[in-house]
C-alpha cells in the first residue's frame, strides 16, 4: 500500500473513530453522500481534461515506438522553419530600409524620423505595400487551465488580402519531470493539511462536523491528485525505462556480441587454414552487421551524442545525454500540435479588357484575318503625291 493510500485509509478511520457523547454528531451528520458526489463531480470536471490528454499521450507517444509519428513531426518542423524563415526575411527587409535611411548623412534627425514614417512595409507574399501580420494567438481554457498557442501569418491588406494564411498550433508543452514534482508537492501539502486539521480537532479549535467535512474534501483531492501522479509517473517510466525498448535493446546487444564471436571464429579459422575466404566473410560481417548494430546501440544508449566546443579553454568535449528535452516534453494543450494552414503564393491576376464578342468559329476566322492583314495595311497607307515641276 502506497503512502497516499495509507493516508486515505487513515482519513476513513478518523471518520469512524468514536468521540465523547456530548461531541459526537448524529448519524445524519455522516450521511454526506450527495455532498461528496457533488465534490467528486466538480473534481472530475477539473481533472477530466487532463486525464484525457494523458491517456492520449500514453496511447500515441509513450507506449508506441518513437518513429511512428515521424511524418507528422517532420511536417510540423518544416512548417515551423518556413514560418520563421518568412518572418526573418520580413523583419530583415524592414531593418535594411531603416539602415539606408540612417546612412543618409544629408538628412537631419527630424528628417530621418519623417522618412521612417513614410516607410511602407511590403507583404512577404504578394510584395504589395500593405505589410504582413506575424503574431501569436492564444486559445485558453480557464476551467481546464490549459492553453494552445498558434503562430499566425496573414497579409496586411484586410479588404483584399492575398492567399497568405499560416496557422501552426504549437500546443502547450511541459516537462513530465516537472509535472510529477508538482503533483508530489501537492500531495505533501494535502498531508500537511490533514495533520493541521487533526490537531485543530484534538485541541478543540474545530467541531467534529467541520473536521469530517474537511477530511472528506481533502480525501477527494488526494484521490484525484494521486491518480494524476500515477499516470504521469507511468509516462515518465515509459520514456526513461520502457520495458519494450529495454527488451529490444537487450536483443540488439545479444545479436551484436554473437556477431563479435562469429568474427573471432572466422579470424581463428583463417589463421589455422590460411583460406582468404574467411577474411572476406569477416569483412562482410563487420560491414553489414557489426557496424550498424554498434551505431544503434550508441543511439539507444544515449539519445543525444554531440561534440561541444568550449570557448574558454579552446577544447572540444563529447556530450552524451540519455534523454533529451524533447523526449521529456508532453503536449498538454487543448489539441495536439499540428499545421492547420500553410497557404502561400499569388493568385493569377485577371486583366480587365473591353468587351469583345468572340465568334464560335474563331479558329476559322483567325487565319482569314491574318491573310487580310497586308490588305488592311495597304488600305491604311496614305496616297502618294507625285510632284511635277514644269519649266
Verbal overview:
Helix 1 (3-16) packs antiparallel against helix 6 (208-240) and helix 5 packs antiparallel against helix 6 (208-240). This protein folds into 3 domains: 3-19 and 26-64 and 176-240, no CATH class; 66-172, no CATH class; 243-324. The chain contains 10 helices and 8 strands. The longest helix is centred in the first third of the chain and has 33 residues, at 70-102. The protein has helices at 3-16, 33-62, 70-102, 109-118, 176-202, 208-240, 243-273, 276-301, 325-328, 362-380, and strands at residues 132-141, 146-155, 165-171, 173-175, 304-310, 315-321, 329-331, 338-343. Helices cover 58% and strands 14% of the residues. The model is unreliable at 15-36, 61-65 and 350-380 (pLDDT under 50).
Amino acid at each position: 500500500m502506497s503512502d497516499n493510500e495509507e493516508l486515505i485509509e487513515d482519513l476513513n478511520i478518523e471518520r469512524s473513530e468514536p468521540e465523547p457523547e456530548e461531541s459526537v454528531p448524529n448519524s445524519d451528520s455522516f450521511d454526506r453522500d450527495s455532498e461528496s458526489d457533488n465534490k467528486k463531480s466538480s473534481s472530475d470536471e477539473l481533472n477530466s481534461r487532463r486525464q484525457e490528454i494523458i491517456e492520449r499521450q500514453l496511447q500515441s507517444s509513450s507506449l508506441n515506438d518513437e518513429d511512428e509519428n515521424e511524418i507528422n513531426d517532420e511536417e510540423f518542423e518544416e512548417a515551423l522553419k518556413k514560418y520563421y524563415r518568412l518572418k526573418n526575411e520580413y523583419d530583415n527587409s524592414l531593418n535594411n530600409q531603416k539602415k539606408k535611411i540612417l546612412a543618409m548623412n544629408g538628412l537631419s534627425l527630424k528628417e530621418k524620423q519623417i522618412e521612417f514614417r513614410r516607410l511602407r512595409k511590403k507583404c512577404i507574399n504578394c510584395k504589395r505595400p500593405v505589410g504582413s501580420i506575424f503574431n501569436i494567438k492564444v486559445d485558453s481554457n480557464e476551467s481546464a487551465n490549459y492553453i494552445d498557442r498558434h503562430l499566425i501569418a496573414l497579409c496586411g491588406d484586410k479588404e483584399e488580402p492575398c492567399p497568405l494564411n499560416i496557422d501552426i498550433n504549437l500546443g502547450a508543452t511541459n516537462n513530465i519531470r516537472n509535472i510529477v514534482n508538482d503533483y508530489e508537492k501537492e500531495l505533501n501539502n494535502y498531508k500537511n493539511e490533514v495533520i493541521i486539521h487533526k490537531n485543530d480537532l484534538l485541541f478543540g479549535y474545530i467541531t467534529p462536523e467541520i473536521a469530517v467535512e474537511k477530511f472528506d474534501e481533502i480525501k477527494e483531492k488526494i484521490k484525484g491528485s494521486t491518480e494524476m501522479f500515477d499516470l504521469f509517473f507511468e509516462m515518465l517510466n515509459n520514456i526513461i525505462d520502457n520495458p519494450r525498448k529495454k527488451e529490444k535493446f537487450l536483443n540488439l546487444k545479444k545479436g551484436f556480441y554473437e556477431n563479435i564471436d562469429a568474427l573471432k571464429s572466422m579470424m581463428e579459422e583463417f589463421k589455422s587454414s590460411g583460406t582468404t575466404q574467411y577474411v572476406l566473410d569477416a569483412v562482410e560481417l563487420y560491414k553489414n552487421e557489426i557496424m550498424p548494430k554498434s551505431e544503434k546501440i550508441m543511439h539507444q544508449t544515449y539519445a543525444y551524442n554531440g561534440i561541444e566546443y568550449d570557448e574558454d579553454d579552446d577544447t572540444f568535449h563529447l556530450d552524451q545525454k540519455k534523454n533529451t528535452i524533447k523526449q521529456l516534453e508532453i503536449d498538454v494543450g487543448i489539441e495536439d500540435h499540428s499545421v492547420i494552414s500553410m497557404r502561400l503564393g499569388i493568385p493569377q491576376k485577371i486583366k480587365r479588357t473591353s468587351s469583345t464578342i468572340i465568334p464560335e468559329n474563331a479558329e476559322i476566322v483567325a487565319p482569314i484575318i491574318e491573310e487580310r492583314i497586308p490588305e488592311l495595311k495597304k488600305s491604311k497607307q496614305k496616297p502618294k503625291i507625285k510632284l511635277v515641276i514644269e519649266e
